[in-house]
């Protein structure tokens, strides 16, 4: 049986913590940020914790269990 491959797009966007949470970068940080207020841009810095409802699916993709 061949090994399961990690989903590479998921690997680039998410990172799992030791406690099982998933960190990701907030949406709207890549480009065209001049139209966003300074307060909103400031709050988009850094990483966020993914919602618990989506954590299982992302962790499965990272482990190579994506079906």
Structure in words:
There is one protein chain. With 67 residues, this protein is an alpha+beta fold. The protein has a single domain (8-63), classed as Factor Xa Inhibitor. It is 36% helix and 15% strand. The protein has helices spanning 8-13, 38-43, 52-63, and strands at residues 14-16, 22-25, 47-49. It has a 3-stranded antiparallel β-sheet with strand order 1-2-3. It starts with 7 loop residues before the first helix and ends with a helix. The mean pLDDT is 91.
Keywords:
about 70 residues, alpha+beta, Factor Xa Inhibitor, three-stranded antiparallel sheet, 3 strands, about 15% strand, elongated
Short note summarizing the structure:
The protein is of the alpha+beta class. It has helices at about 10-15, 40-45, 50-65, and strands at about 15, 20-25, 45-50.
């Amino acid at each position: 049986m061949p090994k399961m491959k990690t989903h590479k797009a998921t690997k680039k966007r998410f990172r799992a913590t030791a406690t099982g949470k998933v960190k990701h970068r907030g949406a709207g940080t890549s480009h065209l940020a001049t139209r966003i207020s300074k307060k909103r841009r400031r709050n988009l810095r850094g990483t966020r914790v993914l919602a618990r409802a989506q954590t299982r699916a992302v962790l499965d993709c990272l482990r190579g269990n994506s079906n």
